[in-house]
From TrEMBL:
Protein name: Coproporphyrin III ferrochelatase
Family: Belongs to the ferrochelatase family.
Organism per entry: Microterricola gilva
Gene3D superfamilies, alphabetized: 3.40.50.1400
Residues that hold Fe-coproporphyrin III according to the record: S53, Y122
Length: 353
């Protein structure tokens, strides 16, 4: 049995008022040379919604749902919540956990796939939080594996694509006239490759997305065409990022003239945050409607019961040291491996055994 004192729900963060937008964006882009025009453009997305991203409210709801699920299963692990780019920052959360006597943390990160943003950067966040608080000797932070192909994450998308396709069929649209766009966050090509070079040019990041999209599609609408497309690129326009952009893909489908409807599946994300609300519900849907295509956007997992209970299963597989070959996974890429511990080497795993 691995010994944990608490769960550390770990997320990206977002602003919750107009005065928090620029500090948030500065944190997000620190040192990475996002052009000012892009920052202004992104600030505008937040400003349009009163400076409020829904992501923190979604994480509060997820924390409450996890607490309820843990209580229902009789598991006594408190849930702390920390962010990378907005309060509550990891250092404050770690201090709070330590003050309560909870030193051995199991990180539950709201990123499903392997990338620097979703993995390496959280590791750095945890290292920095322990260094900044001086608690690295006493505290340790493990991390639950990437859950891109865990049933808890995939099931809500299978339901969502199924119901979108049923809705379109009910409107008299044949599957052959539907194109399903599986959309995720674009990242630089070099970052994709670095996510797992043995997986080819797109690295583990693209391989994981292709495997999950193909699984969801096989379960829902095999007679419809599908593709993997990208959203929310930023950075220097001369730097190659993963393509095609969802809007370009919709333009091409419209030119080809074979489809009447697109189903937009934001399967790169766990909740309907700003990247979904703006880049998909606003821009991509407008692109589709500009071509007189019907667009249906599928929900992200949010607090879907399958997702919440899947996250608790992922915690329990670490608590109970479930052997790798018994861990649930829906694609042949999984189950993804666990990551190295951050912090005190002798805490947690085995330490108390
Ligand atoms: C892979 C990935 C995920 C998924 C995994 C994960 O969840 O981590 C993700 C999530 C998110 N990205 C988000 C927001 C932003 N991402 C940006 C910029 C960037 N993202 C990148 C990658 C990813 N991002 C990259 C390579 C950049 C370029 C600059 C950099 O190297 O950082 C920028 C800067 C401006 C711009 O868009 O150019 C913003 C504002 C929000 C919050 C939304 C809200 O507020 O509701 C969330 C959940
Ligand atoms: Fe991002």
């Amino acid at each position: 049995m691995a010994q944990y004192d608490a769960i550390l729900l770990s997320s990206f963060g977002g602003p919750e008022g107009q005065d928090e937008v620029i500090p948030f964006l500065r944190n997000v882009t620190a040192g990475r040379g996002i052009p000012d025009e892009r920052l202004e453009e992104v600030a505008h997305h937040y400003r349009h919604f009163g400076g409020v991203s829904p992501i923190n409210a979604q994480n509060r709801a997820l924390k409450a749902a996890l607490e309820a699920e843990l209580a229902a299963r009789g598991i006594e692990l408190p849930v702390y919540w920390g962010n990378r780019n907005s309060a509550p920052f990891f250092a404050d959360t770690v201090r709070e956990a330590h003050a309560a006597g909870d030193d051995r943390l199991l990180g539950l990160v709201t990123s499903a796939y392997t990338s620097y943003s979703g993995v390496g950067q959280y590791r750095e966040d945890f290292e920095k939080a322990l260094a900044d608080t001086g608690l690295g000797e006493q505290m340790s932070i493990d991390r639950v594996r990437e859950f891109f192909d865990h049933p808890g994450f995939v099931t809500p998308f299978v339901e969502g694509v199924s119901s979108a396709v049923h809705q379109l069929r009910a409107q008299g649209i044949a599957d052959e006239a539907i194109h399903v766009l599986y959309v995720t966050h674009s990242i630089p090509n070099t970052a994709a490759e670095a996510s797992g070079p043995s997986f080819g040019p797109g690295g583990a990041y693209v391989a994981q997305h292709l495997a999950v999209a193909s699984y969801i599609h096989g379960e829902t609408a095999p007679a419809a065409a599908w593709s993997l497309v990208y959203q929310s690129r930023s950075g220097d326009p001369r730097t190659p990022w993963l393509e095609p952009d969802i809007n370009d893909a919709i333009d091409e489908l419209a030119v080809a003239g074979l489809v009447k409807a697109v189903v937009i599946v934001p399967f790169g994300f766990v909740s309907d945050h700003m990247e979904v609300m703006w880049d998909l519900d606003n821009e991509a849907v407008a692109t589709a409607e500009g071509h007189s295509l019907i667009a249906v956007r599928v929900p992200t997992p949010g607090v879907h019961p399958a997702f919440v209970s899947g996250l608790v299963d992922l915690v329990l597989e670490r608590v109970n040291d479930v052997p790798v070959d018994e861990r649930p996974h829906l694609t042949e890429l999984g189950p993804w491996a666990d990551h190295e511990r951050v912090g005190a080497a002798d805490a947690g795993n085995g330490g108390a055994a």
